[in-house]
Amino acid sequence: MDSVKQKSSLLLSGILSKDINLFSEGVRKGENPFTVNEKGQSFLHLAAKSNAAEIVELLVKLGLSLDERDKKGRTPLHYAAAANSVEAAQKLLSLGAQPDSVDEEGRTPLHYAASAGSLEVLKLLIGKVENPDIPDKKGRTPLFYAAAKSKPETMTLLISSGADLNYKDSLGYTPLIFAAEKDAQSSVLFLIEKGAEVKERDLRGQTALHKAVNNRNLFLVKELFFLKDIPDNDNLYPIHYAVNVGDLDVVRALLDLGADPGSKDKLGKTPLHYAVSRNFKDLVELLISYGASVSEVDSLGRTPAHYAVANDNVEILQLLLKGDSKGELKDKGLLIEAAVSKSVNSLKLLIGEGFNPNERGGEGKTPLHHAAAINAVEVVKALLEAGAQIEAEDVFGGTPLHYAAANGSLEVLQFLLSSGADVNRENKKGRTPLHYAVLKNQPESVRKLILSGADIKRADEVGRTPLHYACELNSPELVEILLKAGADPNVLDPHMVSPLHISAFINGPEVSQMLIDSGADVNLKDKGGKTPLHLCAPKDSFEVANILVERGADLNVTDNQGQTPLHLAVISKSSKVLNLLLEKGADVSLKDVEGRTPLHLAVMSGNRDAVSSLMESSPDLISEADSSGKTPLDYVMEVGDEELFSTFTDYIGSGFTPESPLVKSILKSDRVGFLKALIESGRLSLNQLGKEGQTLLHYAAALGAPKCAAFLVEKGVPVNQKDNFGRLPIHLVSKSDDIETAKVLVEAGAYLDFKDNFGKTPLHFCGMFGASKFARFLIEAGVNPSPEDILKKTPLHYAASSDSAKVVRVLLEAGASLDEKDSQGITPLVEAAKSGKFHVLKEMVDFVLSGNEKQL
């Protein structure tokens, strides 16, 4: 359908006059009946609205849809319902229009008829729908809209047709609550008469009375007074609402009907609190006259008088004081409230009424403390005139001057100083106002205090001066002020920490430069023996470090742990400071109290860049041992860092053999990455043999290195290569008793029953070395439990003589014989007895007695 503006035409004139002939003439003359206006209304919508039933029928015959929608989703039937166009509605329904079609807000024609009071159309529609309680998107049924528009006839029809009087919408409103909110007075009375539940509450807990009060509807308030004691979800009663809207008549009516003037909301506030805070003087008078307490406190401990003071409303405050017949407001902290609020008029009134200008609040603060903190100079003047103590201390020993200094309250600061406040008064931490002016970064306060005689060298309880704290803040402005005033740049706290130590620690290059220019000693040591250079090194504070070095800082100075700045830079991975120190010639060979060089610590901390830099600087460091005899390479082995090890391979020499301590250490710790790096660097050959003809695989087996063993097998080292004694790598697994290594060799094809030059199999070696786990592994793999060597000895003979009871048990359980004799005629039993291995002998006897007597 064309969306164009419908100008004055025969079609439109015909609709407005309900003249079908005129409309038909417009069609014959070529006017387009399918256009819509800027609101999306078709001629069918307009005909329905105008109750032009004949034209409605004609338009439908021409092809316009009964479900035609305007821009808000409304059909022609919606328009007929809203306009009470009975004939048009009847025609649309007879042609098949849907009575329950919804617009974009979920409203049906029934909603529109109810809202407009279109009684006749409503009758037509109700007969076409099953349920009159069709909710729109807000959950509201037609009864809601009839109630809101005070349409008693439509409400009656809906209720008689089954509409629920207590239906709740998405906000928890019932038709009664909705009517009350819309100030539909007659609907409220009508619904109550029809039996609506009057005590229902919406999702915020509000009743119809809350709504009536908000609308200042005195008549409804009186009609609904019985709901006066029902609060909302915030525990606000209707009396609270009445006060908030400031309606004197409604408030009086509620009070006359029995509303409690002392009702409290969830914050503990009474109606009087609200009346005072909103400056409703008439309501304040009214509530007090009905017995409202002027001294009742809310959850914050505030009385109505606090709110009057906060607003500096003297008239209301006077009313409250007059109502305080018992003098209960005297100890409620009203003067402190006046100070905090800068309410000078209220302050003077309270003082005139005899309130104590030195009253104490939280943390022991007086009104003067509070006024000083917020630069309320007029309040300060009034308090001092009234006798407030200028040196009053809070629980921390702080005076008003401390607060003025800390908060940059310059006018108050000047006034207090001119009034005789002690500029060097210390609090319980030994801090003066100057300390706090610095700590809170208040340069103007600092200047005024110094001009008034503040002691710039005064130390607090931890021995820190204002200059120490200025350096902590890294404030060049504060440091400059203090230094120009004569602060000592080398002043030390009890830990021997100077301002320069602090500046170096927090990376303050500008402050550090200022201190040094003023004479700060760059080599002062604190109690730990650390200089400023020590402290900036771990922070990688390059600018500060460079300044210190350029101004003569000792590069090789040691602290109490024997560590130089270089040690600390290495540990903390401070690359910029590290490079600076190396460039400037720091000694890389110095050792700490545990004999560790920076290289040791570089390895410990995993600082690979430092390792490279230090090794390039001094390759000999690799052989330096610490106090326990460990070299940096030993540290590498312990931490297992393969990348570090690769770095070290460039400096560890060459010509390694399987017997080399480094190779053994690698195999013992099963560092396959290290082994790979050593081989790939050409410093160890895969085929290198030991003095006894043993391959690297022999050593891996003996030391229990399954990962290394797997690597060697993968690289082609023969799994069954014999050494000079005819032993295979599998023989030597017995030395480590490591099953994982055994599995690697077996998977690679190791001969499990192979005999060496002396006739010994791997199982013989298990007996010799007490390898019970490997022995069981071999037995489970199917080897003979009683092979003989060239001396006719079985593995059991060797287990008996080598004090290996566990291997004895494994062999006996596998069927090894106790009767086997060697070439000397000696049995395993005799071997055990002869060797003095009595617990092995006992193991054999116990085994026999447990059910194997035939062995004897």
Task: Summarize, please.
With 856 residues, the protein is mainly alpha-helical. Helix content is 50%, strand content 0%.
Contiguous uncertain segments of 5+ residues? 1-5
CATH homologous superfamily identity of the domain at 752-856: Ankyrin repeat-containing domain
Q: Which architecture name of the domain at 752-856 does CATH use?
A: Alpha Horseshoe
Number of beta-strand segments: 0
- Give me the number of helical elements: 52
Structural class: mainly alpha
Q: How much beta, percentage-wise?
A: under 5%
Mean pLDDT: 94
Shape: extended
Q: What summary fits the major beta sheet?
A: none
User: How far apart, in Å, are the first and last alpha carbons?
Assistant: 115 Å
CATH classification, class level of the domain at 752-856: Mainly Alpha
* CATH topology descriptor of the domain at 752-856: Serine Threonine Protein Phosphatase 5, Tetratricopeptide repeat
In oligomeric terms, what are we looking at?
Answer: single chain
Proportion of residues in helical segments: 40-55%
Radius of gyration: 50 Å
Keywords: ANK repeat, Repeat
Protein name: Serine/threonine-protein phosphatase 6 regulatory ankyrin repeat subunit B
Organism: Thermovibrio guaymasensis
ANK repeats: 39-71, 72-104, 105-137, 138-170, 171-203, 234-266, 267-299, 300-332, 363-395, 396-428, 429-461, 462-494, 495-527, 528-560, 561-593, 594-626, 692-724, 725-757, 758-790, 791-823
Describe the structure in your own words.
- By secondary structure, the protein is an all-alpha fold.
- It has a domain at 752-856: Ankyrin repeat-containing domain (Serine Threonine Protein Phosphatase 5, Tetratricopeptide repeat), CATH 1.25.40.
- The protein contains 52 helices and no strands.
- Helix 5 packs antiparallel against helix 6 (86-94).
- The protein starts with 9 loop residues before the first helix and ends in a 7-residue tail after the last helix.
- This is Serine/threonine-protein phosphatase 6 regulatory ankyrin repeat subunit B.
- It holds the Pfam family Ank_2.
